[in-house]
Design a protein that fits this description.
mainly alpha, globular
Length: 261
């Protein structure tokens, strides 16, 4: 698959999401949970058509890269998702200081997280922290990754998908932090030859940030500056450790070979 074709599939999924979200917004029923459900319908629907077009003769688990991998890699990837709060918070803070969100828009966003009931907060955590990451990873680092990897080297595949992932979020202020997050997810996916570490990294990151937003609000810093700097160091250490584990694993070597089969 070419990157142009991958971009078309990404645009299709994103446009479908925007259409569904607009329909709910016009009906006055768009909130965090319904927004993620729209994303699930749009991305999984596009994924079905993608699979029918390119991979209809292969098992879905193989198309998505849901291969067996080591528990240690999954644990390190989940820890990396938490540690990434530090560097991505520093980057996002710099972007938002240079390009502030209008007060009216910020109030709208804060209202989405003002949920009075426990079951509403749990629903948001499950949707934003589990369902949303699962859908995005199956689409980007799952189906699109494998299709691109069969034609392009791993580094180019990771970078290209990270760019598509960032652009799919549509908010220019978020492009840089989302791009960096996408690079991390693609990196762990590429080294493992499996989607599971990328999915766990994404889920742990979203669960942490969503829980914090529900608890103290959007405008509070997720981590203090010293804690963020410490998390930057932890991020580097975890990436190096993850790479060492993945390159020593025969299971990962076989999974990487399956990506280009």
């Amino acid at each position: 698959m070419t990157f142009f074709a991958a971009a078309i599939w990404s645009v299709v999924a994103t446009c479908a999401l925007q259409l569904l979200a607009e329909l709910l917004r016009d009906a006055g029923r768009l909130d965090l949970v319904s927004g993620v459900l729209c994303q699930a319908v749009a991305f999984l629907g596009t994924l079905v058509f993608f699979t029918m077009s390119y991979e209809k003769d292969r098992p879905l688990s193989e198309v998505l890269g849901l291969r067996r991998t080591s528990v240690a890699l999954c644990a390190v990837a989940a820890a990396l998702g938490v540690a990434l709060q530090g560097p991505l918070t520093l980057v996002a803070d710099a972007v938002y200081r240079a390009w502030p969100v209008p007060e009216e828009r910020m109030r709208e966003l804060e209202d989405l997280f003002q949920l009075p009931h426990l079951h509403q907060k749990i629903a948001v955590l499950l949707c934003a922290g589990v369902l949303g990451p699962a859908v995005e990873e199956m689409f980007f680092r799952g189906a699109l990754f494998r299709a691109l990897r069969r034609r392009h080297p791993p580094g180019l595949t990771v970078v290209g998908l990270a760019l598509l992932f960032a652009l799919a979020h549509l908010e220019p202020r978020d492009y840089l932090p989302v791009l960096l997050g996408g690079l991390a997810m693609g990196y762990v996916r590429s080294l493992a030859g499996s989607l599971w570490p990328a999915l766990l990294l994404h889920a742990s990151f979203n669960l942490f940030s969503t829980y914090f937003a529900l608890r103290v609000g959007l405008q509070a810093d997720v981590l203090s500056r010293p804690a963020s700097m410490a998390a930057v160091v932890a991020t580097v250490v975890l990436i190096v450790f993850y790479r060492a584990l993945a390159l020593r694993s025969e299971t990962c070597a076989q999974a990487r070979a399956a990506d280009v089969a």
